[in-house]
Every structure is written in structure tokens, then in C-alpha cells.
Amino acid sequence: MENRQDCMQNITKQLRVLFRTIQVHAKTVEQQCGLSSAKLWMMWELFANPGIKVSELARALTIHPSTCSNMLDQLEDKGLTRRDRSKSDQRAVHLYLTEAGTQLLATAPRPAQGTLSLALENLSDNHLTYLEEGLDQLIQAMQVKDDEAGMLPLSSRDSDLRE
What we know:
InterPro entries: HTH_MarR-typ, WH-like_DNA-bd_sf, WH_DNA-bd_sf. This is Transcriptional regulator. It comes from Desulfocapsa sulfexigens (strain DSM 10523 / SB164P1). With about 160 residues, this protein is mainly α. The protein is about 60% helix and about 5% strand. Helix 3 (about 55-60) packs across helix 4 (about 65-75). The longest helix is centred in the first third of the chain and has 30 residues, at about 5-35. The protein is elongated. The two termini are about 25 Å apart.
């Protein structure tokens, strides 16, 4: 095995590659379609799952339900999504793309988060478990104070963050 210092440097480089790849894609998406990659991912989920509920969408995007609702408000204001209350259960709200939302998706790139999800799906169960455990240990070692940080989507504006 490589010496510990080399291993640590390689991991730092690999994390930068992942983070910057997502940042670059987010900027490209925003320039091409005027939406953040997180909102575009949301629209792809609505396209694939018409009638999905807010809680289900938040779970699919791995974001907090209130963040999901705020993002939906913004997409609805642009005329890209709509919400329909269930006639049988007024508490249930089902989400759909509008015609304008479907047209936007026809020319939009795939969001980076979807690519990341697909890459994770392609990992073996063992690799996925090792990655999860390793990242969990890394986060614990960093003594991260914001437990909710993982429930907020990355945006191109996050590119201003530095180590």
C-alpha cells in the first residue's frame, strides 16, 4: 500500500475532482437552461414520476421537504410545474410538469446529481458500503457541526466555497 501521506493526498484530489465536476456541470446547466442543476434534477424526477408527492420527491432528491417545497414554488412561479390536490384526500398534493416544463427538459442536459446517483448505483454492494462507512468516518473526524448540510442541494454558487 502507498504510504499514508500519498494516500491522504490522493483522497483530497479525488474529492476535489468530484466536487468540481459537480460544480462545472451545475454552471453549464444554469447557463443552458436558466435553472440550477438541483431544480433540473427535480424536473427530471417529475418527468419520470408524474403525480409524485412532495415528501417522495424530497426523499428521491435527498433534500429536506421544506427545501423541496421552496424549490417547487420557484419552478411553479416560472410555469414549469404544477401541484394538484387529490380529490379523495385533500392533504395529498401530486406534482406534475407543465407543457413548458416538458419542453424545457427536451433540450436540457442531465443533472450532475443524476449522474452521481447512477454512478453509485453501478458500484457493487461492498464498494458502496465501504464508501459510505469511509465518508461517514471522514465527516465525523472533521467534526462537522451542521447535521443538515447533506439535506441541501449543491448549486453553482457553491463554487465560491474554498477548503
